[in-house]
Design a protein that fits this description.
The protein has 308 residues and is mainly alpha-helical. The protein is 79% helix and 3% strand.
């Protein structure tokens, strides 16, 4: 009984440790990069962008290593649904989000393409009549290739459209190194506790690991994005609120899921097709909302609809 309680406690504490670890790693890495005269623009596009997806990546790495494929895939699908329906819904309900034409016609369709690719790549059993379905290492390589193209494309667009920089905390070199070390330790411990706890809870309650990944883990790892987008919407920084969500969705599938499949092929339960189809529906709904009511504006009533 004692170890059961400890496992549940570590599972919950793991989210705090994981998210704080990602923050420390980003702060320390950014400070060191700044000391070597790397521009704030490049730091924001690389270190900070990767840092926001670090919780999902760490959880998926541990899930892949331990063979918990359903948690790895469920975490990403659940996180992306949460990003659109909950986080973007709350942000739009706080303040209407006016989007640039490039975001409407490029970023949202790319996020939709990522979801469709997962549906196609993971359904070997239905498409090729194989014995089982999986996201193989080749599939992972395909996703990572698309991610590299996305990075190159994004870098070019950002450089042309905006020179907005990120605020970087000023740290001494030794303190930055300590931040990085503590961040890595936090990520490792938090990720381990969450995955072990998720597997344990699924076995105890006799429910699928995918359900834990789709719900508790997805919402838990989405807390940083929720905070960032909600505050950005409150401050009327609509590009940050929307870009944070759409960018995170693309990162999650092309980068995190790609890396996970490269580490170890992910066995795919076809029941997850319902969740992927719902993610595709959510992405299509966002695109449709851009042309209902005010053009290229996600209005309050639309945000409320997403939350419902």
């Amino acid at each position: 009984m004692f170890w059961i309680i400890i496992t549940y406690i570590l599972f919950l504490v793991g989210f705090v440790v994981l998210i704080k670890g990602a923050d420390l790693l980003v702060d320390g890495s950014s400070a060191i990069a700044k000391r070597f005269n790397v521009s704030s623009f490049v730091i924001g596009l690389t270190i900070v962008a990767f840092g926001t997806s670090m919780p999902e990546l760490i959880i998926n790495i541990f899930s892949s290593v331990e063979g918990a494929s359903e948690i790895a895939i469920g975490n990403i699908i659940g996180s992306n649904i949460t990003n659109i329906m909950l986080i973007l819904g709350i942000a739009a309900f706080i303040y209407p989000l006016t989007l640039e034409k490039g975001t409407v016609w490029r970023a949202i369709p790319l996020s939709l393409l990522a979801a469709i690719m997962v549906l196609i790549l993971s359904n070997d059993k239905l498409i090729e009549n194989r014995i089982f379905s999986e996201l193989s290492r080749i599939d992972g390589l395909v996703l990572i290739s698309f991610f590299i193209i996305f990075l190159y494309y994004t870098f070019g667009i950002k450089k042309v459209q905006s020179e907005e920089v990120v605020k970087i905390e000023s740290l001494t070199f030794s303190r930055a190194i300590i931040y990085i070390c503590l961040g890595l330790i936090g990520l490792m411990l938090g990720g381990k506790w969450i995955v072990d706890g998720a597997i344990f809870i699924a076995n105890q309650l006799n429910i699928s690991q995918a359900l834990i990944g789709l719900t508790i883990i997805a919402i838990g790892t989405g807390l940083p994005e929720l905070t960032t987008s909600a505050v950005a919407a409150y401050k009327k920084k609509v590009d940050i609120a929307m870009g944070n969500v759409i960018g995170s969705n693309i990162f999650n599938i092309f980068w995190v899921l790609g890396i996970s499949a490269m580490i170890r092929p992910l066995q795919f339960n076809i029941v997850l097709n319902y969740d992927i189809i719902f993610l595709i529906f959510a992405s299509l709904l966002i695109f449709l909302f851009m042309f209902l009511g005010k053009k290229h504006v996600l209005e309050k009533w639309q945000g409320f609809t997403l939350i419902i």
